[in-house]
């Protein structure tokens, strides 16, 4: 079952509304806008990895704003159906590979394929308690040197440092905290 209401905030698909699964908390329009506006000059032509992709709203937002390609990782088969429908609706299907599997397995698959990305965005369920330190080695294996890793979490969660990464900025948006880490290699 899907609910409606996630609207693309900018770019060529601005204003288009995507379906959102009832049990998914999408990245809010304000969070997407703050992030994209901060890095708009870095978005054109990038390869983007969307971990915990859900409805694909962030993937669609960044493709709308100039990203070239994306890999979206989402383990729920029901959510993947909605994600595919959203990509089809916007004409983005050819620019997105969906990996329907858990994030840790997807990172291993991408690393084995020698895929690398300019930008990785992780937005795990807030109740998940996902720790950055668990995945930092796998994240660095698929992120270009000087690439950006952005972690979205509840503002109630303690921030982490990640070996090999420097904190570029931390922003609070409502009950959300975004932490941008630059991978220094």
Features of the shown structure:
185 residues, alpha/beta, Rossmann fold, 7-stranded mixed β-sheet, two-stranded antiparallel ribbon, 6 helices, 30% helix, globular
Strand content: 25-35%
List low-pLDDT spans.
none
Query: How helix-rich are the residues, as a percent range?
Result: 25-40%
Q: How confident overall, as mean pLDDT?
A: 86
Query: Could you name the CATH homologous superfamily?
Result: Vaccinia Virus protein VP39
CATH topology-level fold name: Rossmann fold
Q: Specify the CATH class.
A: Alpha Beta
- Estimate nothing, just give the exact number of structural domains: 1
Helix-strand makeup class = alpha/beta
Specify the CATH architecture.
Answer: 3-Layer(aba) Sandwich
Question: Would you mind describing this structure in some detail?
Answer:
This protein is of the alpha/beta class and about 180 residues long. The protein is built from 6 helices and 9 strands, in the order ββααβαβαβαβαβββ. Helix content is about 30%, strand content about 30%. Strands 5-4-3-6-7-9-8 form a 7-stranded mixed sheet, with helices on both faces. Helix 5 (about 105-110) packs parallel to helix 6. It starts with a strand and ends with a strand.
Explain briefly what this protein structure is:
The protein is α/β, with parallel strands linked by helices and 185 residues long. The protein is built from six helices and nine strands, in the order ββααβαβαβαβαβββ. It has a seven-stranded mixed β-sheet with strand order 5-4-3-6-7-9-8, sandwiched between helices. Strands 1-2 form a two-stranded antiparallel sheet.
């Amino acid at each position: 079952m899907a609910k409606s209401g996630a609207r693309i905030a900018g770019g060529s698909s601005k204003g288009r509304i995507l379906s959102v699964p009832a049990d998914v908390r999408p990245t809010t329009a304000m969070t997407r806008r703050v992030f994209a506006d901060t890095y708009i000059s870095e978005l054109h032509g990038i390869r983007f990895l969307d971990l915990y992709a859900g409805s694909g709203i962030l993937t669609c937002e960044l493709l709308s704003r100039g990203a070239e390609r994306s890999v979206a990782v989402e383990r729920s088969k029901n959510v993947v159906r909605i994600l595919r429908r959203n990509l089809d609706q916007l004409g983005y299907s050819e620019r997105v590979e969906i990996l329907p599997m858990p994030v840790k397995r997807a990172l291993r698959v991408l690393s084995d394929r020698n895929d690398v990305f300019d930008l990785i965005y992780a937005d795990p369920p807030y109740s998940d308690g996902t720790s950055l330190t668990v995945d930092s080695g796998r994240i660095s294996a698929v992120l270009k040197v000087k690439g950006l890793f952005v972690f979205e979490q509840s503002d109630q969660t303690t921030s982490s440092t990640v070996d090999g990464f420097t904190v570029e900025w931390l922003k609070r948006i409502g009950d959300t905290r975004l932490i941008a880490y630059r991978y220094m290699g």
